[in-house]
Amino acid sequence: MWPYYEPETSVLPPELNRRFNPAFNMAAIRQVINEAVERVRMPTPMRLRDLIRQIRAARTAAEERAVINKECAYIRSTFREEDSVWRCRNIAKLLYIHMLGYPAHFGQLECLKLIASPRFTDKRIGYLGAMLLLDERQDVHLLITNCLKNDLNSTTQFVVGLALCTLGAIASPEMSRDLASEVERLMKSPNAYIRKKAALCAFRIIRKVPELMEIFLPATRSLLSEKNHGVLITGVTLITEMCENSPDTLNHFKKRLRSHTTAAVDQGSLDRNPPASSHRNHLDCMDLHASYFKIVPNLVRILKNLILAGYSPEHDVSGVSDPFLQVKILRLLRILGKNDAEASEAMNDILAQVATNTETSKNVGNTILYETVLSIMDIKSESGLRVLAVNILGRFLLNNDKNIRYVALNTLLKTVYIDTSAVQRHRSTILECLKDPDVSIRRRALELSFALVNTNNIRTMMKELLVFLEKADPEFKAQCSSSIVLSAERFSPNKRWHLDTLLKVLVAAGNYVRDDVVSCTIQLISESTSQQGYIVEQLWRALERDTMDRQPLTQVATWCIGEYGDLLLYGPSASEDNPIRVTEEDVICVYQRLLWSTQNTIVTKQYTLLSLTKLSTRFQSGNDKIRQIIDTFGSHLHIELQQRGVEFSQLFRKYEHLRPALLERMPPMETARPAGAGNPSAMTNGETEDMDAAGDEGNLLEGRKGFNESETQDSNALLVLLGGADTGETEATRQTESSKPASTDNQDLLDLLGGLDLSTSNPAPVTTIQNNNNILFNTNQSSNFLVDGLLNSDPVVNSLPNITAYEKNGLKIIFSLERLPDNPNTTVITMSAMNETPNPLSEFLFQAAVPKTFQLQMLPPSGTVVAPAGQVTQVLRITNPNRTALRMRIRVSYSAGGVTVQDQADVNNFPPESWQ
């Protein structure tokens, strides 16, 4: 029988010694002779193992480069030969050089030659080189398409496998479209090895070209009925990729599931009423066809067989039958069951079996349980099954492996809002994780702990979290303190507990407290009028101690003592068991220590200096000592403290009569509060609370009332802007105005605002300021220009080039643009109106309008008369939340020589730096 091999005593090797094919034997002999001649003519190249040994023996990087450069030069010289018998060995060495990071692109064409070789060893090295050296950005990449197509039709399964692996690794969109049909054909091959490789290649092609998914969709039906685990796991992977990337494909599989259920119901009704025998075969075919689409039942059946199957050496991993396939199936079930009650119901039982029958002593079992928990939480599972999943995560928290504990905390953090009551059962275990030496576990445990806080456990949780805050690393203190403040704001049982908690945060966190904690504490003290005497005593006790490492605490304490110092000195003591005894000299002494300390920050000294100035109106005596301390800051090296010292000193001299009014106690601060205890919309973290419907209705009516007032105010302000209406006008004036033609005020309104979209669905509050019979437009804020200029000035940066907004009839208006550092969406414009005529311009009025996407604020002008060669300035602040191109329409009016001039213009030449 051909081929017939000679016995071992034959001279020629078996593959070249075929007795009944002389022509083939002669060609083989000729090839052997040519190779022998080639070996004699050219020296034998270095073997790969010898090259590796030389490279590892190099003591320096220079020696290594010398070895590699020498070998690369030799390989280049051999590539010039057309028929080199050492091409395979040279490419293997070149791939090793490439893996070391050295350039090896010159071997790309040689890889193509090896791929075209009929020898399997050459093809193997050639395809490996193609996967490493080729990519779709190079033209050489296109030359391999024909070789791949030929090898995909090879009769040898290993050659087909090489081609499929290479196609999946380096396929470009064009190559994928050319060879997709070949891959789809191989997915139906009777060879399991080829089917497995073809399914993986289809997976890569779909990622590269998603529109080719429809070609492989019919071939996926038979993959789930495979008995070979390799083919089965690749089929599940392919279907998972399809369902994740295409909602239409996901719906296709779900509809097929429903069609099978409908077919089963129809079959049952037909069994009760048997049809004629001529139709029985047709119905059997329909039922068989429907069985191809049982996606979820098939997956459930496969997973059940894996769980209940006995020991199988081929698939056993640490006592678990094929955990890789189980994980893949669980992931696909999670995708199919999401937002699908029917599919979720079909997989509830198997998920419960996996959760209860999987061995947890090995890491592979924990992997399966983790995927099971994710599937239970994603699908529409039963409540008992969710509790089981959370309990599994609770057991993970007791595991000695840090990775498992981290995964459990991370998963609980994602599921805590789905079933909070189940997670609450493991609260003590989660709090124990705060003591873990691993920083990642502590961080996740901290986030999860704050997610579990509610009105019922607020006291217990805050006690544990405050203990953690005291001993925590500096990197945790800022985040932990802010989170404690937010939780206390939402769920505090009463004001005093809330204040005590904030005080403990300020003491425990020290200088790591964020600015938001300081502001929240000051706001709470301001609005808690009944607790101000108590908190001022507690803060005084904290301030008496050394607070160098607690600057935020000092800032809050000095602010509180400055506001409510009279309660500290002259009010009744809030602590009956330990009454406080404080004199004015004690307070001034402590303030001196704070102000002279070199370790206190400038911000803390600013708080202290302002607080000391306020105490001059709270104390019954001692103002001379306070004035002396403040006067010393008039020559301070820091400009901010020097300015405050000079200004506050004037309140003790020239403006003595204004000091009591300027430094009186601030009213309670009212700002937007987060949802909490006392707010019906509070999140209770799993706890059910009754809501006050009357309170909600009252808030709704109050909000509606404010909205209507805002609308009316905005409408009037727009008319006031253009001189069309005055809120204080008389009935006679309105009658006179109504007798004018329609093209007066309303037409002026359209003229000024025409072309600009000024309509808004949520109008901002608008204020009008009347100064010297001139109406000025001001949006969002009515500011006290005296106080703003002294105490609340906004530093500006990013000066921009000036632009000329208007120049006509001797009047020139220039805009100076600046950006705020703390609010990049705000542009500050300083308008300068200059008179280039010899006559003064009286009754000067500047008006501006912007589109609805902007917010405009105009401060009062410096005057209404522009002298010859003089100027009038006015500050405009424009908030641009969307950072779109600035546009503005301006109107100017003035009197020159008894003639009233009124004109308007568009300003569209703002530089991009002013709004980008």
Q: If you average the pLDDT, what whole number results?
A: 77
Q: Termini, distance in Å? A: 84 Å
Which strand-content bin applies to the residues?
A: 5-15%
Give the fraction of residues assigned to helices. 55-70%
Rg over alpha carbons: 42 Å
Provide an overview of this structure.
- There is one protein chain.
- The chain is an alpha+beta fold and 916 residues long.
- Helix content is 56%, strand content 9%.
- The longest helix has 29 residues, at 693-721.
- The chain is extended, with a radius of gyration of 42 Å.
Descriptors for this entry?
five-stranded antiparallel sheet; three-stranded antiparallel sheet; alpha+beta; 12 strands; extended; 916 residues; single chain; disordered N terminus; 38 helices
Topology:
Elements lengths: L21 H20 L6 H10 L3 H19 L7 H13 L8 H8 L4 H14 L11 H8 L4 H14 L2 H14 L5 H17 L4 H4 L12 H17 L1 H26 L4 H15 L3 H14 L7 E2 L2 E2 L1 H15 L3 H17 L5 H16 L4 H15 L4 H14 L4 H5 L2 H6 L6 H13 L6 H14 L2 H18 L3 H15 L5 H13 L4 H13 L6 H20 L13 H13 L5 H17 L4 H10 L6 H12 L8 H4 L30 H29 L9 H8 L6 H9 L12 E6 L2 E6 L5 H7 L11 E6 L2 E9 L6 E10 L6 E8 L5 E4 L12 E9 L8 E9 L2 E9 L9
Antiparallel strand pairs: 1-2, 3-4, 5-6, 6-7, 7-10, 8-11, 9-10, 11-12
Helix pairs in contact: 2-3, 3-4, 4-6, 5-6, 6-8, 7-8, 7-9, 8-10, 9-10, 10-12, 12-13, 12-16, 13-14, 15-16, 15-17, 16-17, 16-18, 17-18, 17-19, 18-19, 18-20, 19-20, 20-23, 24-25, 24-26, 25-26, 26-27, 26-28, 27-29, 28-29, 29-31, 30-31, 31-32, 31-33, 32-33
